[in-house]
Amino acid sequence: MEATGTDEVEKIKSKFMSAWHNMKYSWVLKTKTYFSRNSPVFLLGKCYHFKTDESGELSTGGSNFDKINAEISGNVEEFRKDFISRIWLTYREEFPQIKGSALTTDCGWGCTLRTGQMLLAQGLMLHFLGRAWVWPDALDIDNSDSESWTAHTVKKLTASFEASLTAEREPKILSNHHRGTLKRNCDDNEMRNEVYHRKIISWFGDSPLAAFGLHRLIEYGKKSGKIAGDWYGPAVVAHILRKAVEEARDPELQGVTVYVAQDCTVYSSDVIDRQCSFMDSGKADTKAVIILVPVRLGGERTNTDYLEFVKGILSLEYCVGIIGGKPKQSYYFAGFQDDSLIYMDPHYCQSFVDVSIKDFPLESFHCPSPKKMSFKKMDPSCTIGFYCRTVQDFEKASEEITKV
Questions:
Q1: Domain of 314?
Q2: 347 catalytic, yes or no?
Q3: Other Cβ atoms within 10 Å of 291 Cβ, number
Q4: Is 32 contained in some domain?
Q5: Number of domains in the chain
Q6: How many Cα atoms within 13 Å fall on the side-chain side of residue 30?
Q7: Annotated catalytic residue within 215, 347, 367, 379
Q8: Is 145 a catalytic residue?
Q9: Domain presence at residue 359
Q10: What is the pTM (predicted TM-score) of this model?
Q11: Annotated catalytic, 367?
């Protein structure tokens, strides 16, 4: 009885902290981010230009897109579509209890694990979908100021539920279509992409069975002396991700490996050895590699001399982002404009989504709006990620990184 009482106290405490952190951080989804019209915007190796003859700034909120010409508006729309298509992983609550604890939320402590998940997810998206892929429904996520994003999500989920009820009343031959399709006619390639889109997200589900879910990552973190509720640094998360990919049993993941640099040094022979390792017995195809480089960009504060280096890295097509942030507050850096970094913020507590069900809702895994932060505020400790599909890609990436 005593143990049960302790569990109840822990659950109540956990719910209180979820509410507190949601109140503390939820403003980030209700404020606009402004981008200069006169400077290029880089997002994971892609460059977008918003330049017009008019001076001033434009917002990603969508309210003043019609004030600029069609060419620029189209480019802003392409940027938004590209950004929203990246997988966003945030605090969650009410998920299955983490083994060895009473925790059913990662609010307040899991942000670096979440940013690590986002970086790995981007690597897997490049591997299975390619950099040109965008989510067809990306621009359906509303980002207006008139309602909070959560309220919009509720409406979308309600609409999705109503649609599912309608589908159940349709003839069975229609409702039994392909498991990845979403109420629209699409060709085989679109169907394949939708299947992989959902599959990648499902690998990061908040359950003990998910290959890269929080529960698994915490288990792998125990070897580094970490437990659920601890704060994880970018370097520790890099090694946890390597272990998670090594231990993944899904046949789809056997073609990917992770290499973690030692003392900021990437040993080419070690990377190539990993890529050329046997995928299965009797098969010697090379593996794609995700390279993680834990670095420190200064002493107590980030040295501004590293600004051009970070910008150069985020400009490369091989870059899958940076696990970084402010002191004790991790962000996933995916791009930049001028001297500001563009990021996705995991500090937003959302409800658990069961990714094992057919056609689970996707909206909460895609961020409706980018955020910006001055490079000067960046914590010096971070982990930089790259993806190379082949040995030739690795050799080309090495040349480009050397130039940076």
A1: 40-48+72-142+191-403
A2: yes
A3: 25
A4: no
A5: 1
A6: 13
A7: 347
A8: no
A9: yes
A10: 0.81
A11: no
